[in-house]
# Entry
Amino acid sequence: MKTQLDYARAGIVTEAMEQAVIDEPMTAEELRDLIAVGRAVLPRNRNHSFPIVKAIGHGLKTKVNANLGTSAECCSQELERAKLKAALDAKTDSIMDLSTGGNLGALRQFFLENSTVMVGAVPIYTLATEMVARHQSLEKLDGDQLLKSIEKQCSEGIDYITVHCGVTQASVKKLESYERVMPCVSRGGSIHMHWMRRNQKENPLYENFDDLLEIAHSFDVTLSLGDGFRPGTIVDASDGPQLEELMILGELARRARARGVQVMIEGPGHVPLRQIEANILLQKRLCDGAPFYVLGPLPTDIAAGYDHITAAIGGALAGAAGADYICYVTPAEHLGLPNADDVYQGVMAARIAGHVADIAKGLPGSMDRDRRISIARQKLDWEGMIREALDPELVSRRLEVTQDKEACSMCGKLCAVKISRLA
# Structure
């Protein structure tokens, strides 16, 4: 069986490629060529059918992901149903199931059957959750067991998976030589590091990377190479452990592409504003232009409760510098499991950041909607403004116009648009 990368290298435009360029500023042939050289990915498991197919990478619109899923403290499928609806209503491009509580297989199936967009997952979460439920220590994790769990989840239809292959003995050693405030904030990264330290062995996903590639190729699953040593505070950003791991991920990305497996790279979470552009440019250089998937990034640590805003600031700058894929951050980040409203706000904030980035990148047509809504504002065309807004329902709900419909309640008879009109 061939992957989208195999087809692209053979010069073939697939049906999925044609679907993915709908509403994009490029042709299917141009997308094919980008996939062929690893500068774009089209996550679509051969066992998963969904209507809204998207590609991620250079020259494409900046995409947005919404993390969903349960925890051991809150594992309501009805809450996940509401969160999925909120994410789709806000027009996310992807969802990830990060569940660690309840019936994980049933939850994955629910997301795969009900999502209209691609679905990602972090397979180590499932195995670790199952081990904890059986009162087994995480250091007893078995590499073969992990690969079997990954294969099972891929066979179910997951479109892309986060795998922490860059947490190696070399990167752990680098971490130990640095005085970080927060040594490791990645859940998956910390599980691998704990196992490696207790067993004095190499990360099984790094050691058996070729086996992982065989699984991914079998189902055409895109690998999202996770950043286990991403900075969890701005004071730890751009340090040795982060960069050591990034260099390893660049090496693994080349091996993945050589095997016909699509790959993208995950990027840092907390980065001061002045360092964001450099982080993006370095990733693109070390990973040969592979699509970059960033969490935020957050340029300050003190905005708990408002981190969707913080992340939108960082995401806009990261996207403008070349990041391709933004993982949303909700107002609940660092505080608890998000609810449906948090999910909606997180997606909208990330979409704003992505749109700002697309304008900065100079994507053809990226300012067209801005022009249309501005013309509607000049005409005091309220319906036109609602139609062109990123969140039409919110604008319709908040709009307050005067009795004569000629101004909003902000300015009334002193409306600058009305006053400045020529007689």
Remarks:
- The chain has a mean pLDDT of 96.
- The radius of gyration is 22 Å.
- The longest strand covers residues 63-68.
